[in-house]
Amino acid sequence: MSRVELPSGEDPCALKPVEVTANAEQPHVVEFRGVSKTYGLGTPRAFTAVKDINFHVADKPGIGEFIGILGPSGCGKSTILRLIAGLTPQFPQTTGEVLVKGAPVTEPGPDRGMVFQDYTSFDNRTVLDNVAFGLECQGMSKKERHTLARDWIGRVGLDPVHDQHKYPHELSGGMKQRVAIARTLILKPRIMLMDEPFGALDPVTRHRMQDLLVELWRDLEATVFFVTHDVSEAVYLGDRVYILSNSPGTILEELQVMPPDRPSKVMAREKEFQDSVFEITNMLDKLEEGKD
Ligand SMILES: Nc1ncnc2c1ncn2[C@@H]1O[C@H](COP(=O)(O)OP(=O)(O)OP(=O)(O)O)[C@@H](O)[C@H]1O
Ligand SMILES: [Mg+2]
């Protein structure tokens, strides 16, 4: 694990800046420049959730990076994700710039897909129609979108024949989350924003979903921002991990961790992995202790 020099250059603990082999001519996939968000600005209830956030994810051709985001509850993780997604009321930011591929975010777009912790399927639609929903919005014919949706139902480990006709209330938590992932990935977003997507799953299902996500992510070459409270999950999935401070959140550390090139159960047994988890858990414990 090594620390990455933050854009401000103020990280006193920096061990070694990591070289980013990006094409200098390509705009960054995502960039935050001095971003702050104050809710209820101008009212007595004004509250600054995140402050002076600076980072960028370089565009590396053919590779999508996986960024894990960790931090104490209420430090602004969801706020950051929803600013990238262009979702109100988090969007727009109060100060600074949020850039996607060099252009300011102005609204949600098909280049950014979001997966939430609470399963966001439509209760009155079958698995097939839930997975096909985004394609339907794009005007794709029923036959074409259903063919693609059945393919994705299979790719996320559901049974395309039997599960396609089920409604969300007939699915387990893990199955619902598979539907949510298929619904997002079918649109092939360039950027995936995942807000504690596996938080409600049991440990075994969670490990399976982590491995599945890594497999699907490799094929799509998407840049993934993944918020979690589970340090092992962030260290396993992430190429990099951002650690946010207590509220108002700002990025305290940016750490390079081992890439997810082995199954999660194998990696969990390695010393380097365990050391990273231990070090980050300590940092987070200190942050929790420093809360009011
Ligand atoms: N719409 C809103 N209006 C006012 N305050 C808000 C709003 N949304 C979030 N906040 C506040 O901003 C802060 C950051 O919220 P956010 O949801 O981004 O935190 P988080 O890091 O995702 O927390 P958790 O880990 O609990 O999900 C919190 O104090 C929250 O109360
Ligand atoms: Mg949150």
What topology emerges from the helices and strands here?
Elements (H helix, E strand, L loop, with lengths): L1 E2 L26 E10 L7 E11 L8 E5 L6 H9 L9 E6 L2 E2 L7 E4 L11 H5 L1 H5 L4 H14 L17 H13 L5 E5 L7 H18 L2 E5 L3 H7 L2 E5 L6 E6 L7 H4 L3 H19 L3
Parallel strand pairs: 4-9, 4-10, 7-8, 8-9
Antiparallel strand pairs: 1-11, 2-3, 2-5, 5-6, 10-11
Which characteristics define this entry?
single chain, 292 residues, alpha/beta, Rossmann fold, four-stranded antiparallel beta sheet, 9 helices, binds adenosine-5'-triphosphate, binds magnesium ion
Counting H and I runs of at least 4 residues, what is the number of helices? 9
Please provide the count of β strands: 11
Instruction: List low-pLDDT spans.
Output: 6-22
CATH fold-level assignment? Rossmann fold
Strands of the biggest beta sheet: in what spatial order? 1-11-10-4-9-8-7
- Estimated share of beta-strand residues: 15-25%
Summarize the structure.
The protein is an alpha/beta fold and 292 residues long. It has helices at 77-85, 127-131, 133-137, 142-155, 173-185, 203-220, 231-237, 264-267, 271-289, and strands at 2-3, 30-39, 47-57, 66-70, 95-100, 103-104, 112-115, 191-195, 223-227, 240-244, 251-256.
